[in-house]
Specification:
mainly alpha; 9 helices
Length: 201
């Protein structure tokens, strides 16, 4: 069997779904209160047949739900999200202005990011700011700037937390990144793609 190229959601009838839930609850209670009964082949077979029949009935009575239009709409929102980040590629972007630029509410943006990026937009923006800080630390000259200046420019005001989070994410303290010679290969390891750092989550 070849799986469909796009997921299909179905909505079972209330009576079929109620029957499946009742059987599932009964099986759970039996497993909790009388687990020895489940070791009997005839009991296990009867339960398996009842649950299978209930699931088939749910599918047979279900009405298909078209989720393609919602998926396309979410993809457009994520595309606008990407464009808004591209327009502000050299500095931090905050949630309120981002929602305004994308033209949607935070709850909708959250659902879209979770669907397409695997994380909520707050987490994504935090990762983005961390990578901007790393980029600036690796490119800066230590005698002309400081970790504090770069961190605050990227929107991090709690410097102790920033340092701990930076080390956890990149495996070194920010002061080491700042002091590394520009010719070191690790100084150019920032990802130019606005989506590349999502794998750091």
């Amino acid at each position: 069997m070849t799986p469909p190229s796009f997921p299909h959601h179905v909505k079972p009838s209330k009576s079929a779904l109620w029957r499946l839930r009742q059987l599932h609850e009964a099986a759970g209670l039996l497993a909790k209160k009388a687990p020895d009964v489940l070791t009997k082949p005839e009991v296990a077979q009867t339960m398996e047949e009842a649950l299978s029949e209930a699931m088939v009935l749910c599918l047979a009575s279900a009405e298909p739900t078209d989720v393609r239009s919602a998926h396309i709409h979410h993809a457009k929102i994520v595309r606008r999200f990407e464009e808004a980040l591209h327009a502000n590629s050299n500095g931090p972007v905050y949630m309120q202005e981002l929602c305004a630029a994308v033209g949607t509410s935070y709850s909708t943006l959250r659902d879209c990011c979770q669907e397409h990026l695997g994380m909520n937009p707050k987490r994504y923006l935090w990762l983005r700011r961390m990578h901007l800080a790393r980029r600036d630390l690796c490119r800066a000259e230590p005698e002309k700037t400081s970790v504090t200046e770069i961190a605050t420019n990227c929107g991090f005001w709690e410097l102790g937390r920033f340092s701990v989070a930076y080390r956890g994410l990149f495996g070194e303290p920010p002061s080491i990144a700042l002091g590394r010679p520009p010719e070191d290969p690790r100084s150019g390891d920032d990802d130019s793609s606005p989506w590349g750092f999502a794998k750091s989550a």
